[in-house]
Amino acid sequence: MNREEFARCVQEAEGSLYRVAKSILHSDEDCADAIQSGILKAYQRLDTLRREAFFKTWLTRIVINECYQIIRQSKRLQPLDEDPGWDDEALWQCREESVVFQELMGLEEKYRIPFVLHEVEGYSAREIGGMLGLSETNVRNRISRGKKLLRKRLEGEVRLS
Amino acid sequence: MMNQNIFPQEPDEVKEAVQRALECLKETKPAGEKGGKVSRTWQRRMLGGLPKAAVLAAALLLISGVTLTAVGAVNLYRQRMEEMDQEELDTYYDIAGKSDGGNLNRSLTQEEIDRKKQLEEAYEAGEILPQSQAQHLEGTEEYAQEGVGLDVTSRTWMLPEETLSDEELLEIIDGQHKEAYSIYEKNRQRILAQGNWESRMEAMSESEVDRIYRIANTTEDLSGGYSRELTEKERQRYEELKKGYEEENLVPAAEIQVIPRPEDYTGQGAAICDLDADYYLPEGPLTDEDLLEIIDFEHKVSYCFSRINTEVQQGLRDGYPPSGLEKQD
Predict the structure, then answer these.
(1) Which residue is closest to B2 within chain A, CA to CA?
(2) What's the CATH code of the domain at A43?
(3) Can you give B94-158 as a three-state secondary structure string?
(4) What pTM was computed for the model?
């Protein structure tokens, strides 16, 4: 894969990378940092990618690592679990999707991220396991649990505090 | 799948960050291969950023009295590499540094090349090994025209004029792979010397990674639960120690004990059970060592699943290790 092909693949994955980063990090600024850093690291490690078909999964995993790196390194940042302040209406337009988004972001991180990767981005449980360092079975359990919890939240049985 | 529109639109600052990153690529070179001395097997592993520890495969054969068929079946090739002692590693590492090419005193015939290729595949699969090791020579003049020899001063393989036997080809293959492994292992040791938890994870051997994968993947209900609830005090201490583990290089004195079945738990210390992948805890308060052993194992499980998946994706593995333990008599 040459630089031009790499750039094209990155651009194709850009939206997905943002959504995945957004499901881990609070601010868009941090998402931008994680994605930018992830792209550069991926390019530097391009030789480690043996099958181009796995490019997007591979890059996503690197970006996820960058997201966690940002959380680890910066004391000022809080993972979403510790800062469920997603009811900032100024952030999003008021529309139905934003309600789903906010409820989704209210899920515990361990359910939210596998759920987003599977249900929004379409990755398989095995791929997600590789990205997050979980067994396939564990991923399936978390996705299933995430679905139930989200359904409950959307039905109003569980509300954000 | 859910509608991706539930997420906010990608903001301009993210688009700009992607563009900046892509612009930077023009000034950035993708990582290249490190030297041309490494055989393709170990080269793939090194390039994959996946260093492995030389934890002896043999040490993994016995886990609480259980012999793991799959681990026992760790191929002979890998085992041979991981059993190299430090002196042998140093020797081959020094040899590898002698020249870039790995010279031969004569060209191989096409028939020898073809046969070497076939033998190397079998060797890498652990199906065949040489009966002995090529002689090491302190100069080409020491070569007595018998068998194959490696001049360690110039990294030149000395071959007899007659057609090489399978054994002789295997001795060459073995020497070349040991050279490659020594580079790989030295890199691993350097990473290990960094001493942080991530480097320790990366330094796990393939055998260890496989072993942990099997332990953690032995049950459909992989809850990773505890045999009893942690007390509030234990939870707090767990979090403190986890931070220490990740940030201050706090490590347990020993690895967590592995028990084949719940009934094998003695009630002493923390243990992980092969059968249900649950943690078994003593009734009394957990010590820092107990908690650190759990934290260590949790980190290893997470790392191992991630590494195996990555290796499969990158083509470094043919597939996932079989789930579960197959016990032998």
Answers:
(1) A120
(2) 1.10.1740.10
(3) HHHCCCCCCEECCCCCHHHHHHHHHHHHHHHCCCCCCCCCCEEECCHHHCCCCCCEEECCCCEEE
(4) 0.40
